[in-house]
Known about the structure:
Elements: H1 11-20, E1 29-33, H2 39-46, E2 50-55, H3 58-69, H4 88-96, H5 104-109, H6 122-137, H7 144-160, E3 196-200, H8 203-206, E4 213-218, H9 227-230, H10 232-239, H11 267-277, E5 280-288, H12 295-303, E6 306-315, E7 330-339
Parallel strand pairs: 1-2, 1-4, 2-3, 4-5
Antiparallel strand pairs: 5-7, 6-7
Helix pairs in contact: 3-7, 6-7, 11-12
Amino acid sequence: MKYIGNKTRVIGFIEDSLKKSKIDYKGKKIIDLFAGTGSVSNFFLKNGATVYSCDNMLYSICEQYRVNYFNNEPSFAELSTILKDYSLEGVLNYLNNLKPIKGYFYDNYAPSGKFNRMYFSNSNAEKIDSIRNEISKWETFLPKEKYLFLLGILMCAADKVSNTSGTYGAYLKIWRSMALKEIILEKPEFVSKGKNIIELCDVADFVKNYKGIDIVYMDPPYNKRQYASNFHVLENIVVYDKQNLNGKTGLRDYKLQKSDYCIKSKVKSAFEKLVKSINSKYLVMSYSTEGLLSEQEIIEILNKKGETKIFRYDYRRFKTNSWTKGDTKLQELLFICKIFKYK
Length: 343
């Protein structure tokens, strides 16, 4: 899944920094705040940890259920009265072969739809309509984790064939080659790992619910780009409340999902409040040198909580169409704070 700030490419840096700090993360209890695509949760889970992960966007929760929740391929016996083959392969095969329909997503995201937007080809938008409509009928039959898992698979498949350059702030005016391929629901990879507890929740509320935590990892937004507006199409697919969308790009109403971490006048206060509420042995935070908070502001806040070290990783900014030159002097920062008072 294409995602702003995805930590997949810096997992090795995070792992190396934890090892240099002599922090044992294997088999531990870990909170992952602002979990996003769940890539850092996945790293900890593969090391046998129990991970409590949180985000305020439903598309993030669905993606985490897709990639992290199940250790083994789930069966869908709950659908035995509907489907002859209720294995995961049977369920996906059934959904992939549904008759396309012209519905909400066709109207809002296809060039021949009501609003002539080019997020998806006409045929893919029709398939998204038929698949999402069918999955919605199963909500009363399926446990939450299986329902959200299927939504994650649909969302990931839609993202792969979207006519966008990375985010959904706008669609492309010409078709990229992947957008013209047929959408196909695919099995994710299943790897034996630790236990994942996933919640749709505000991070400040979430972190107060757990005690006996070894590590709190957090990856807050660092610039002004709101995730709710940059990934509104994916959120629309999983929420499926059929809102009337606004403007040329078809934005959802996201006023309740705006993050204070993306607002210069509010970010410092939000960060201070969150740090004060954390109770764990270690607080580990990813950030960027081009973030709204300065390195010095972060250090001043964390030093009140514990002994803090900074690790640095040089990287190039990723544009939607190409890598920039190697002289941007940007750094991924990892703050590791050993908390003074741990209860």
